[in-house]
Design a protein that fits this description.
Elements (H helix, E strand, L loop, with lengths): L1 E7 L8 H12 L4 E7 L6 H10 L4 E4 L15 E5 L3 H4 L5 H17 L3 E4 L2 H11 L6 E3 L21 E5 L7 H8 L5 E5 L4 H9 L3 E5 L4 H10 L2 E4 L8 H9 L3 E4 L2 H7 L4 E3 L4 H10 L3 H15 L4 H16 L1
Parallel strand pairs: 1-2, 1-3, 3-4, 4-5, 5-6, 7-8, 7-10, 8-9, 10-11, 11-12
Helix pairs in contact: 1-13, 6-11, 9-12
């Protein structure tokens, strides 16, 4: 039986997307691979954690994301690195010095010591090749899996006041333009995250009905999907866009961006809009009050989401582990 070590960032109470992904993988492969977990120690420096990582190396070593620098402690070992996105690297707000340090220790040096990189989308793959010239034949596209909790829930009747669900609240998530789209309508926004002060003020000034939810469990997030009429995820940037697939699993139509990974993920199964045009966003939301279109998108979405079942994704990771073991 293969022995694999999953290397994680330090334990945390929120933002468990990476951990959730690989927990599902581990559970699916328990009869065919012995998978151990290594967590960074938040009380130690990155150098100290890098040295610790080397002592926990096994037959196959998989850095699950957000701690790419650990690869330098696994030199000479069979190592896989998962890259979820390059959002931080491409963010123009960072100084040249910050970007240079990030370039060196998060990508340039770690990529020298890994055998295979897995990415969650072709969008991220092309970024990796563009910025770091990493060999294409050593990149595998393995999308993120949907957790079991996000099960289908039929929508018997649409809400008279359309409920728009938004997952996440960083500025790149595009709450500003959703607010502009909702201005003067009867839309209600359900927002999961921590909106910025200016966004909350704008919601109040525009008199837009809204509820903010923070720190929800997976089951509570599922409840919000089930309660909404449509998911809005027309972000400016996503490495993948997991809420798109989660909403489709639950049986809710999705409005997403016509760019990047969101176009890749949602084309043919979601309504695509220009994230910079509130009018397009408003028109897309209004169009989904037509029950025929609603049901059509739900059906397409469920077909699309089936490709991201956690069992399928686990098999794809196992294939990479076996490939590297040989």
């Amino acid at each position: 039986m293969l022995t694999v070590t999953h290397f994680y960032r330090e334990p945390r109470k929120t933002g468990l997307s990476i951990e959730g992904i690989f927990k599902s993988v581990k559970e699916c492969l328990e009869d065919r691979a012995e998978i151990r977990d290594f967590y960074c120690d938040g009380s130690l420096s990155r150098l100290q954690n890098t040295r610790r990582a080397g002592k926990f190396a096994s037959e196959i070593n998989h850095i699950t994301g957000d701690v790419n620098f650990l690869a330098m402690g696994l030199r000479g070992k069979k190592t896989i690195l998962t890259v979820h996105d390059l959002g931080f690297y491409e963010n123009p707000v960072h100084s040249r010095l910050v970007k240079m340090v990030y370039h060196l220790f998060w990508f340039y040096l770690p990529l020298k010591y890994v055998d295979i990189v897995t990415v969650v989308s072709d969008f991220t793959k092309q970024k990796l090749i563009k910025y770091f010239q990493f060999p294409e034949d050593r990149i595998r596209i393995i999308p993120d899996p949907v957790k079991k909790v996000f099960r289908f829930s039929a929508k018997e009747k649409l809400n008279a006041q359309p409920v728009i669900l938004m997952m996440g609240t960083g500025k790149h998530k595009n709450l500003d333009n959703l607010i502009e789209a909702a201005k003067g309508t009867n839309f209600k926004l359900d927002i999961i995250g921590w909106p910025a002060k200016d966004e909350l003020e704008k919601l109040k000034n525009y008199n837009i009905a809204h509820t903010v939810y923070s720190g929800l469990s997976d089951e509570e997030v599922y409840e919000r999907y089930a309660a909404c009429d449509v998911l809005f995820m027309a972000s400016h940037y996503e490495g993948f866009g997991m809420p798109i697939v989660e909403a489709q699993c639950v049986g809710r139509p999705v409005i997403t961006s016509n760019i990047g990974a969101m176009l890749e993920l949602g084309k043919g199964s979601a309504l695509l809009v220009d994230p910079n045009k509130p009018v397009e966003i408003r028109e897309a939301i209004e169009s989904l009050q037509d029950r025929k279109l609603f049901d059509e998108l739900v059906a397409r979405g469920r077909v699309n989401a089936a490709k991201y079942d956690y069992k399928i994704i686990a098999e794809q990771y196992l294939a990479v582990y076996q490939e590297l073991a040989k």
